[in-house]
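Appendix B. One record, verbatim.
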Amino acid sequence: MPEKVTYDNASYTVTGVAALAFCDYNSDLTSVTLPNTITSFDVSAFDGTVLKTLVVPNSVKSIGNDCFQYSSLTSITIGSGVETIGTSAFAKCKSLTSITIEAANPPTISANTVPADVKKNIVLTVPKGSLAAYKAAANWDGFKEYKEADGGGGGGGGGTGSDEPYALVDGIYYEMDHTADTASVISGYQAGITQTPIPAW
């Protein structure tokens, strides 16, 4: 996925993943690489996704409620910039066995962000020197195993074009903010399309 998209001679920075953007409607999706311009994942952005692995960029600061619930994820790496992860973000993630978090300070989570029946199967890997902080932080207890690892991470325009609210660029649907010149990834379903094309990256 690009950091910027051009539509009708205007350039838009991709800053968000909207609700249901990568949900189970995208049944043919096998992988996605997210740019370091994204700052948030909306509610249910990856709800029921068939993706097995995902790297959350360092630029992301917030992950919404129910974001990954019912997903097929087996492992996820969460970048160093994440500050909050919403309620039930990992609910019903029966296949999830590995969460790596690159934030030195534990993100704020609720008791149900990672439910107990999911936690018990997960190895949590945190940055070197941060293990004590995670074990002491609210709601970060109960994981199957805790590990420390070195850090590292997932990294991280103007225009006066069309006023159309949605755009299809290189096989991906975007919701356009023409005032801020930003765009959020959405699903074809949200754009009123019954089938979402999946680009071959």
